[in-house]
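DM from R.C. (forwarded with permission)

"hey, sorry to bug you on a friday — could you get me a structure for this? deadline for the figure draft is monday and I only need the backbone to look sensible"
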Amino acid sequence: MKTDTAQQKNNSMEILWKVLRFIGRYRFLLILSIVLASASVILQLYVPILFGDAIDEIVGEGQVNFDNMWYYLSRILVMVIVSGAATWIMNIINNRMTYNTVRDIRAKAIRHIQELPLSYLDQHSTGDIISRVIADTDILSDGLLLGFTQLFSGIVTIIGTLIFMLSKNVWITLLVIVLTPLSFFVAKFISGRSFQMFRKQSDARGRQTALIEEMIGNQKLVQAFGYEEKSSARFSQVNKELKEYSQKAVFFSSLTNPSTRFVNNVIYAAVALVGAFLIPGGYLTVGGLSVLLAYANQYMKPFNDISSVITELQNALACASRIFAFLEEAPESPDASGSVDNVQGEVDIENVCFSYTPDKKLIENFNLHVSPGKRIAIVGPTGCGKTTFINLLMRFYDVNGGTISVDGHPVKELSRHALRKSYGMVLQDTWIKNGTVRENICIGKPDASEDEIIEAAKKSHSWEFIRRLPKGLDTVLKEDSLSQGQKQLLCITRVMLCLPPMLILDEATSSIDTRTEMMIQEAFDQMMEGRTSFIVAHRLSTIRNADTILVMKDGSIIEQGSHDELMKKGGFYENLYNSQFVNVTE
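My reply, with the result:
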């Protein structure tokens, strides 16, 4: 248990230093905030001395020096105004510094998402990543703002009060210093146990966000399969865990404030008691005691302030640990700078081996030569490696062994952007961003003219529904604005507009009606003329005209040839083909 607590403290300090490295970019604002905090605190600390001097001007009944008293009171008024202005400006600076820091962290997180390998995104839920980038950074922002406000003023207050107290009475100052560690001990003892609960709370919040995102995004499936009760039960379980961790975290952290206040009140009472005994002997005046009591109260105030926001601070550190764990994930392997001019479309795959996990091999000793302009169809049962093969061609994943080359250039020597720019890809899964129809079509060619866009839309047979939209190409689309088939037509239009030298069609017409599919197939045939094309299809009737058909099973090519050649062999392909057309009767 002691080891775990020590490790948590080390983690907290390590996370804090990581946050401070981001804050270090705003050194000028940081220094200015410290200067203003110091000025504000020193002025506030000088006020009790003036009050004490004013009190000492009251000697007895009828013996009050009003001139000196009003002099001290006017100085107090000026100092309070200046101190308030300094605090106001300091808070503005702290706000700007905090939000700039969080903005930088978010910006780095978004850039990091673009650099992460696809394997990381496949293994982590979208909701959890969103929670880290949005919710966790918001909580970190609140904690930083509170921390800055309390930290700078608190440190200066503690040091300043000790100096002023020493100038009044050494023994009472030493008494305060000796009793202070009690407050530190109580705060550390409790906060060390609350960090773990806040860490679990953040993890549970991420899982809850992921579940909500999953259920909302697939609500049709949830209702179609009657999964409502089970999804509610899953949410209730995560919600229950979040509630338990939150309650425990708040309970532990809330003990800090009353505990430290109790210790601080003991210190205050000790100062009052010792000071009362010193007055009769002439070692201290009544005004001097009032000054020391005011300083004792101000000296303890930072501990009370910090303990009162310990919940937010611990929560912020727990969220920061999740953010930095994400930012420290290893990015993709370094990108090369090579490129291929005037891509011809010759693809060579030599002894390629690949697996998602080391203990489960998928593709082994894969060899293939594709001449420029050829159409390669890839067929096989579910899970045989067809989509994995596409991921390797696009270098979404790097091969574990062997080489993939384009026009004689190994893809690892090419930049990913240059490689992917050579491919036009239409997948079964569609993606439409929030924007106009025009913006969605022009993703690959932002400078396309209106005539080019319309021509591409007509070839892909999407123009019929586009022109019926309220604002045509300028209609703003959302996720549910179009049917699945219309989304897929837009994705096909993107490729029709770019006309890259190589094509990848992975079930590109799976959501389109048969009549439209036949027309699009004609457009595809025209587009594939002279372009190297890789076609993944489950409906084997759509790939009969392919130059070469690769039949995959368990990550290996078991048959290869044209449709007629494979049918004559009477092997796995013939059985697969005939199974789609034979009438099964009992």
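R.C.: lifesaver. The mean pLDDT is 79.
me: no worries. Residues 203 and 322 are 8 Å apart (CA to CA).
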